[in-house]
Amino acid sequence: xxxxxxxxxxxxxxxxxxxxxxxxxxxxxxxxxxxxxxxxxxxxxxxxxxxxxxxxxxxxxxxxxxxxxxxxxxxxxxxxxxxxxxxxxxxxxxxxxxxxxxxxxxxxxxxxxxxxxxxxxxxxxxxxxxxxxxxxxxxxxxxxxxxxxxxxxxxxxxxxxxxxxxxxxxxxxxxxxxxxxxxxxxxxxxxxxxxxxxxxx
Length: 201
Known about the structure:
The chain is of the alpha/beta class. Helix content is 38%, strand content 14%. Strand 3 (43-47), helix 1 and strand 4 (83-87) form a beta-alpha-beta unit.
């Protein structure tokens, strides 16, 4: 993976949310990470939680998750400007925490983002995201749900493996790229339908 990767610009959290204290992560975070990339992008990607942002000296740092994600996007022909990346948890956990409580506290933030941004397509990475999006679905796992499309808050959504799982198990890379290519196809299909709709009107 020797390509030059980029650090996507972070979007500032809306007023008040950067001081959120609903769950215990507020006591261990450096800051709230609202999202990164193009805030007006048609594709919204959802990861479980932010990775490392700075190295020990405080310099900007590109974590393995974001590096692998960008590799997959490039292989699939998706450009950074078409993507907005956000997280179930808006704070990077630094030590053990109450996971169900933190996810429940942060879910309204994700719903607010969907309402504000109205992306054309959603795409989730990893089993944690699957379980948060579909808490009542039996056997909600990436392995079972990937390759198909569902709806979340009236927006099409699909899933693939977490970038860190792909780094640990290189045999997953082909599926990871396959799923990102399917994401691009879905977006183009919806975009084309929207254009035809506008022409008809």
